[in-house]
Amino acid sequence: MQSVKNYGKKTAVIVVFILLSLWFSIFLMKKINLTTADLGRHIKNGEVILSLGLQDFGKSDIFTKNFYSYTNQDFSFVNHHWGSGVVFYLINRAGSFIALSFFYILLSVLTFGIFFYTAKKEIGILPAFAFSMALIPIMASRAEIRPEVFTYFFSSIFFLICYFSQKSKINPSWLYFLVPIFFVWVNLHIAFFFGFIILGAFMAEQLFFLALSRPAHILKELSFSFILSLFAVILNPLGFLGALEPFKIFKEYGYLVVENQSIGFLERLGHTTGLNFLLFKILFLALFLSFALVLIKKRKKFSLSNCLLAIITSFMAYMGIRNFPFFGFFALPIMAENTAILLGVFKEKITKNIVLTTAIIIVIIFFIHGLIYFYNQKTIAGLGLDAGINNSADFFKKNNIKGPIFNNYDIGGYLIYHLYPEHKVFVDNRPEAYPVSFFKEIYIPAQEDNKKWEELLNQYNFNAIFFSWRDYTPWGQNFLAQRIEDKKWAPIFADNYNIIFVKRNDLNKNIIEKYELPKEMFRVSPVTK
Questions:
Q1: pTM exceeds cut of 0.70
Q2: Minimal CA–CA distance to 217: which of 164, 158, 294, 157?
């Protein structure tokens, strides 16, 4: 009878995990808009790096310079995600962009599964299910295929091993397994330093135990793992330079990157649609209320490591919305443990029916929330590339349009993917790969002021303009309106994503006669200076 009961529990866990995984996957199923994504550049990185011989590996400018730009080609840049590019290129080559979508979803679901397993072990299947439903919109807020998926995955492994080692549920020697992970992680994504944060949080708790004369049974393994990992992260093509890059990359950029902005800053701009700010605030308050209650009611059960990780991930999420998934993933097992402790304290006052009812209400609320979200996102739901996304690049190549090309920030990765090595870009969406002065004194002023544009045109002698008309910056919209009115330029292609102009000269005469678009098809309101 006991074996039947255990079998039933295991079956329930599997069914719940499958349902949650499918729910999580649906949030991540978004077609790839290659014109604004970084993915194209990552794939090209992989292609170029795999074409290098062993003698050139690590010496190529692709690791240290602004490799794809003709305006700042000697500007120092650390290619800290080169390994991700290799992985993305190989998957794309083997199975197209649909395979990349599946890979991204699979790795994300595995990450969720590890955190969910930890939560379920603490509090049981139903409350873990309810917490997951509440947190999945935060976890899945970065649906675009990016190298950071490797950071989420490795973070889940680090947390799992540290967490269960501290609770004596696995042998502490597992902590040494984290060292070789650092060697892989440092070459895939710059946020490998988060592994040190996780190790540091658990080391802090072990030192706290030591100060209270309590058993600090994994302090030695944590310390040695931490020290050995410092050497492991040096094993990248740039050595110390690559290992230290996380401490240098978040400097002042000349260009505002939305995903790096804080919640407060974006709220002041009114940029809040679809970003789950309210949900984050509610879950943040719930998380820290649970810590406060544990401190009051069961101080000896208070977890310093969990509290440190909660503070760090919450701060990261508030200060840069790109870090929302960090908060979502870590909040799941931490909230589960705190709630389990509190249920133990209040077990006489809180019946199973109250717990069950609360969990069901949470599930229903976030199921409805998810349905509303899916309805609003239905036009971009799916796998692989957005329909017609490559049409502008195919048109450009088919007609053998010559450069130099002037392009906007967002579309840089798209052009690198399609046009390198025949063409380099004016700019791309890596603000750290360009000097601040380039954006503030050249790129933005040239789009705001016709005089500045003419100066830039004389300097580079642009033959083509390849622009994402979905660039909603004031300068981008002004620039497009100006070019439509500019008799020196002819629009020859426009679709749902991009617009292409060529200069009116003998080189482009035939293509203009064949493809020029009438000015009347564009609605423009130019701002002149």
A1: yes
A2: 164
